[in-house]
Amino acid sequence: MSTVEQPATVRSTTAAAPEIKTDRVSGPSRGFLDWLSTTDHKRIGILYLVTSFAFMMLGGVEALLMRTQLAQANLKVLDPQTYNQIMTMHGTTMVFLVVMPLWAGFSNYIVPLQIGARDMAFPRLNALSYWLFLAGGIVFYASVFFTPPEAGWTAYTPLSTGPYIPGNGTDAWIYLIHLTGIASLLGAVNVTVTIAHMRAPGMGWSRIPLFCWSMVAQAIMILLTIPVVAGAVTLMLTDRHFGTCFMSPACGGSALLYQHLFWFFGHPEVYIMILPAFGVISEVLPVFARKPIFGYRAIAASSLGIAFLSMLVWAHHMFATPLTPVVLAFFMLSSMAIAVPTGVKILNWIATLFHGSINAKVPLYFAVGFLILFTLGGITGVMLAIFPIDRQVTDTYFVVAHFHFVLVAGAVSGIMAALYYWFPKMTGRMLSERLGKISFWMQFVGFLGTFLIQHTLGLSGMPRRIYTYGAEKGWEVENLVSTVGAFILGIGVLLTMANVIWSLRCGQRASPDPWKGNTLEWFTASPPPVHNFDVVPVVRSVEPMREIRRRVARDQRTTEHHR
Amino acid sequence: MLYKLPLAGVLLPERGGSPNADRIASLYAVTLVIAFVVFIGVVVAIVYALRRYSEKRHPVATQTRGNTRLEIAWTLAASGLIVFLAVWTFIQLPGIENADESEASAAVIDAGIVPAGKDQPLTIEVIGRQYIWKFRYPGGASSYEEMVAPVGVTVKLEITSIDVAHSWWIPKLGGKFDALPGYTNETWFRISEEGVYQGQCAELCGRNHAVMFARVRAVSPDAYVAWLARQKRENAEGLAAAKADRPAIPEER
User: What integer pLDDT is reported at residue A23 of this predicted model?
Assistant: First the structure.
């Protein structure tokens, strides 16, 4: 045998399975205080996840309240002011307090493990991110006891800056953007530096797990766009309170300026929410199809391509505003162009399934649900890029359906897949497969029931953000279907929450590598010890765990032979 | 083909009021057919893969890492589809964007609404405010909530707002155009059939956004002229009454 450098891991892998022998490195537990003072990336990850899932419940209740109000014509469940407040809370919650921090939670927990690091690069900064995010959520929800904001999650001027909405709800919204924005920026710096500098030996850029690649692309977008929205809402704040005039035409400002600034952030934000889901799908599909991802480089490159293009498409949210033809044409073409890297990804994922040996576990269910529904959302996205068509369907339930296909069927399916996939790693327990599959089907059917029919509502003229409609409009049947679907979807999500609570106590014990994963998080114990790895293995491919498993099997054979 | 079926408001945008709305609907129909084919293709591929390559039927996975030729091919195919859609849109664009420049119908010219000749549109100002639309017609008449317009002539709209952002939208007459304070947005329609075309504000403009309705009542040129004269007289009477500080409508005794 030629002399092969003996990786340090061999020591720890000669046992029956990839194994970690840990000595206690932390001090005695102080219970609750440990959670408040923690700088462990795994604990911070769990704090993020628990907090965001709690906010998801609030956002979900808000969604169901709106769907109840709209179930039939002329209902009086919510009055106009309350409806607008709940609509604003729902959108803001789901974007800034649910999807973004959920990804922050997963990336906190998983990224260091996947690259073989012992923590994030800046553990204290990491804790600061979480507490700032929580502060943003608290400031925002505290407005419930005063006057909640009611200008929508986009807070268009002059509605948000002028004398049109009494109370200080919009200020609470601005502080939320600032606080969660700083949290995201710090988190983005942290995750980028961690991936750039703390990788296991041998893990070159072409061997980084695709989830980490997607987090790099996401971090770039956060770093470039969050400061812009933070600036925009600061202008709004000074307009509201300090006598400046950036947004009001009455004193020389522009009512359109804010829209440009907001959407320069707002469109990349869509990809900030969806790219990590792309990463999760790229992790889950190969593991459950038992073959490598099809076109690793194409998928990693298209993440970066999407991140770049996402910053050149913002005005497609503004096709109905006065824009010159050349601007309209540019943003139509750039928005269409972004369909190419996205389409390439989808085809690569489907090709990953082909010739595989598909192990249909719950994470795969959600990944496939993602593929089907997100494709539909992507396709309606191309239709919306065509600006004459956009002007018929924008600001209607068509566009509501479109972005829920992208953000619920896309981002939230990715979150569900990530939860079922990584829960065993985080807790040492498996989630119930049975309950998981019931939850998946309820979410899938409920989602289609809620949102597919909303395309039709939009085409027949129902604008978004209306608190009621007359019976003569003929929208009652579709709205009722949508409301029923929303409740099914809600129960589906609740079942997963129940699954989590039940499995934490009674779930089947998980081995370190229950799925036969490809990446390093499956090398350590479930849940991992504080320092993650006794020995950081040398990485020789994109799927280090495959080799480690092979080596373990070989070593076992040799040992048996020698006996 | 798809275009002939009664699918407006179900699978296609509303149409049937003005040619630009019709053209948007037919452009939409083309993209819908492409979208449908792509979506069905993706779903069939996924379902086939899940059934054919399940653990039971295909116990050993083939360890392929990619296929550069195939990947280049489908990148080109996806780009080709996008290029086709872009080109098709640009071909259709002038008919949607540019106001119909053909001469108004004889009845319109006879009624003296616009002069004879090409490119002689009737211009109506549309002004949004919380929560009602105001319309100003040439010659000083104005109306609220319901715009009255003659059939057989191109009507150009100049849309603005005096408070917050609103959005002008009558689905059967074309797409949305935002009404923003400090900006003037322009669109057009040309109605050939008399009738009432319904719409409502499409940009969140405050608490009563849901009840900021808009209507266009298309009438014959003669009826339009008569309505305009009456509206102008009533407006003037109202103004005079306001100046004289007495009720516009005399109180009943």
Answer: 55
The interface pTM score, or ipTM, of the predicted complex is 0.93
Q: Tens of pLDDT along A509-557?
A: 999 999 999 999 999 999 999 999 999 999 999 999 999 999 988 988 8
Taking residue A25's Cβ as centre, other Cβ atoms within 10 Å add up to 8
Q: What's the rounded Cα separation, in Å, for the pair A34 and B156?
A: 68
- Mutate which of B209, B213, B216 to disrupt the A interface (most A C-beta within 10 Å)? B209
B66 interfacial to chain A (CB closer than 8 Å): yes
In angstroms, what CA-CA distances link B213 with A442, A463, B130, B131, B200? 37, 11, 11, 8, 4
Give B65-103 pLDDT, tens digit per residue: 999 999 999 999 999 999 999 999 999 999 999 999 999
The token duo for B141 is 């008449």
Contacts of B94 in chain A (CB under 8 A): none
Q: Is B24 in contact with B96 (CB distance < 8 Å)?
A: yes
In terms of DSSP bridges, do strands B185-190 and B154-161 run parallel, antiparallel, or are they unpaired?
antiparallel
* Nearest Cα to Cα of residue A184 among A138, A230, A133: A133
Average pLDDT in the B180-193 region? 96
From 1.20.210.10, 1.10.760.10, 3.30.43.10, 3.30.565.10, which CATH number describes the A47-562 domain? 1.20.210.10
Neighbours of B92 (CB within 10 A): 17
> Quick one: average pLDDT of B21-42?
96
For residue B198, the cross-strand partners are B215
Q: Which domains does chain B have, with CATH numbers?
A: 2-97 (1.10.287.90), 106-243 (2.60.40.420)
- The neighbouring-strand residues paired with B179 are B166
Q: What angle do CA A370, A376, A377 make, to 5 degrees?
A: 85
Residues in chain A with CB shorter than 8 Å from the CB of B210 are 80, 466-469
Tally Cβ neighbours within 10 Å of residue A231. 12
Contact residues, chain B, for A468 at CB < 8 Å: 210
Spatial contact of B24 and B175, defined as CB atoms under 8 Å apart: yes
Domain ranges of chain A: 47-562
Listing DSSP states for A471-487 in one string gives GGG--HHHHHHHHHHHH
Specify the 3-state DSSP secondary structure of B195.
strand
- Sheet with B185-190, strands from edge to edge, namely B142-144, B132-136, B122-129, B154-161, B185-190
Using the beta-carbon criterion (under 8 Å), do B27 and A386 form an inter-chain contact? Answer: yes
Alpha-carbon distance of A35 to B2, in angstroms, equals 61
